[in-house]
Amino acid sequence: MASRYTELQKNRTVNHRCLVQPDTEQENKRKSDEVNKRKNAACTATKKESKISCSCCIKKSGRGVKKIVAGSTNEAHFTDKRDYPYDQQRQQDDDLKARLSFALKSAGVTSQMEEFDCLQIEGDSQKQGDISSPTSTLQFPNDRHSQDIKHPDIPFLLQEDYFPSQCILLNPDESTTCDFKVSNNARNLTRPQHNDSEMIRRKPHHSFVICADSQIGMTSRNQEWETELEYCRDAIEKINSLDPKPSFACVCGDLVDMDSSFYRNSDQFSKEECDAIQDRQNADFKRVWSAIDDDIPLICLCGNHDVGNRPNAASIQKFRSAFGDEYLSFWVNGTYNIALNNVLFSDPTDAPDLFEEQNAWLENRLIYANEHGAEQIFVFCHHPWFLYDENEDASDLLGSCPFPKEWGQSGEAFPDNYFGIPKKYREIAMNLFERYNVAACFCGHFHQNLVSRSSFGMEMIITASLSLLFESSGKPTEQSIDPNGRGIRIVDVMDGYISHRFEQI
């Protein structure tokens, strides 16, 4: 059971049969493709500004139709009659042409393609110089074809979401033509192994689940923790019932409550007792959460109750021994996901070298995601980077969260400034997130739902806990879009945007 967690979060990535990560060859090819796409986009922009055709563009012919020659050696840049920016539709157009180009070259055939009455490929080498598709290395198997294809020499595999409903193929001398349609069955054929990693977008939609602060032992202050384990069981039951299955689930820190830095100075526990209780809580957490569907990878992040308010090398290593890497990254359906130990951003005093090491890794991963064409970038952590405003300082946060009633009527409260990241450390991360286009960040720690947005459009999505709930007196009404309660957040990822909803357990 222990290896289920440590093996999943290893080598700074996710290792799971349902989330296949790319190998070096796939990464290199994707990076090369992205370089070509950026060149295409820049070339198209230049052409629009100057209103003339540059040497590497194709001239317009007829009603916005682009004429190109397939099967030659030069680079082509594709546009269509709709003057929209370079986006997913154009990416699909380029992928289509690349696949057709290779297939036709393999068969010794040039092609003419008509897609949605706005794109055309035509064998006409006398009118134009030879121009090929920008990518042409995809290997299509010879033994699987659409039943509607009439030409026996076309060795390619039709793939869903990339091919038009009708194409026209011409041989080199244009003496014969062959019409074919893409059957529905062909659209659902399995993709080649080369594209089987999660780096490539294969589905129009996927989802994932966010949980936070299971914090077992919190209600009784570590006298017992069956209370929180039962909440966890309810969450697991709801996750397992989701249809379609989420691509993964993430618990955003504070997996357990006991940490010696919180309790060792009390009259109740010695440090040795604290460590022993935390070990038992970790074991019980893993035992209960092992009931999650085997097809749903579970990402476990560390919170301040897992590694302490001032984490150090020893506390972080203890977490690694129980759950695997405390920060990592992974692809899911064309999106890039970065999980962080941002407790270090809360107070790196006792581990400055580890803080700097993670920061360097974070920027490296963000650069990598951009270079490899991540459709969206998501960040997962424990602490909110901010509560209400990205520029807020501790003195701006005047609200507080009264201690939960389960702890008695003490009149004490957590100030709101306890929950965010200090501004000087927050700015380090936020500058990177803005520079490299992070779409959303998911976290917990606040023990209540809250959604805010940065000036550059990044959503700061805080999910309520699976343990005790808080209610801040400083929370603006307009930012309280979800009811406060124990539950899970279901995030739906579409092309270029997300939606999310909180469901109580």
What would your notes on this structure say?
It is built from twelve helices and 22 strands. Helix 1 crosses helix 9 and helix 5 runs parallel beside helix 7. The chain has a six-stranded mixed β-sheet with strand order 13-14-15-18-20-19, with helices on one face. It has a five-stranded mixed β-sheet with strand order 12-11-10-21-22, covered by helices on one side. Strands 5-8-9 form a three-stranded antiparallel β-sheet, with helices on one face. Strand 1 and strand 2 form a beta hairpin. By secondary structure, it is an alpha/beta fold.
What portion of residues belong to β-strands?
A: 15-25%
- The secondary-structure class comes to alpha/beta
Enumerate how many helices there are, as a single number. 12
What number is the mean pLDDT?
79
Report the sheet with the most strands, covering strand number, pairing sense and barrel closure: 6 strands, mixed
> What are the segments in which pLDDT stays under 50 over at least 5 consecutive residues?
53-87, 109-194
Mass-distribution shape: globular
User: How many strand segments?
Assistant: 22
Going across the major beta sheet, what is the strand order? 13-14-15-18-20-19
Rg for CA atoms = 27 Å
N- to C-terminal distance: 26 Å
Helix content: 25-40%
Topology at a glance:
Blueprint: H1 2-8, E1 9-10, E2 13-14, H2 24-50, E3 60-61, E4 65-66, H3 88-107, E5 111-112, E6 114-115, E7 119-120, E8 166-170, E9 177-181, H4 184-187, E10 206-211, H5 226-241, E11 249-251, H6 260-263, H7 271-289, E12 298-300, H8 304-307, H9 313-323, E13 328-332, E14 335-339, H10 343-346, H11 352-371, E15 377-380, E16 400-402, E17 413-415, H12 423-435, E18 440-443, E19 450-453, E20 459-462, E21 487-494, E22 497-504
Parallel strand pairs: 10-11, 11-12, 14-15, 15-18, 18-20
Antiparallel strand pairs: 1-2, 3-4, 5-8, 6-7, 8-9, 10-21, 13-14, 16-17, 19-20, 21-22
